[in-house]
Specification:
about 130 residues, alpha+beta, Tetrahydropterin Synthase, Chain A, 2 helices, elongated, binds ligand LPXRUNBV, binds zinc ion, 6-PTP_synth/QueD
């Protein structure tokens, strides 16, 4: 029987963006209170009986959010080059947090980014450490 544990933490940040080449009002500058969910998965626990300390996941997620908080996203790399869509932001968080948190036993398995209370993207890659 395969066992899988998936942790999830929630944090948030506020920032403005404009969507380039967008045929609607989102091409004008506007802001969101983004909500970020980070999932970390493992199939075995550490000696403390944890996948990973929630505190470590929250710390890394908050540090990355701080780079975007109260900023105009289109000014910040890589969103000065690629559109600051929910999809591209989710990939940015996935890659950044994977670099910081993944180890031989546990890995960032999904990022869910809520752009509004009614719309989010869930981003995943190959499910392996
Ligand atoms: N696939 C995507 N679609 C849209 C994105 C995106 O990042 N990925 N972004 C936007 C805009 O940034 C917009 O601010 C969000 O629009 P929307 O979800 O429509 O939010 P509203 O609250 O304005 O819409 P309601 O109809 O009131 O729910 C657009 N699309
Ligand atoms: Zn928007």
């Amino acid at each position: 029987m395969a066992i899988t544990y998936t942790l999830k933490i929630l944090t948030d940040f506020s920032s403005a963006h404009t969507l380039r080449d967008y045929p609607g009002e989102c091409r004008r500058m506007h802001g969101h209170n983004w909500k970020l969910e980070v999932e970390v998965t493992a199939q075995a626990l550490d000696q403390q009986g944890m996948v990973m300390d929630f505190k470590d996941i929250k710390k890394s997620a908050r540090q990355l959010c701080a780079q975007l908080d109260h900023r105009y996203l289109n000014d910040i790399s890589p969103f000065d080059r690629i559109n600051p869509t929910a999809e591209n932001l989710a990939a940015f968080f996935y890659r950044g947090l994977s670099q910081q948190l993944n180890n031989e036993r546990a890995w960032v398995s999904a990022i869910t980014l809520w752009e509004t209370e009614r719309a989010c993207v869930r981003y995943t890659e190959d499910q392996s450490p």
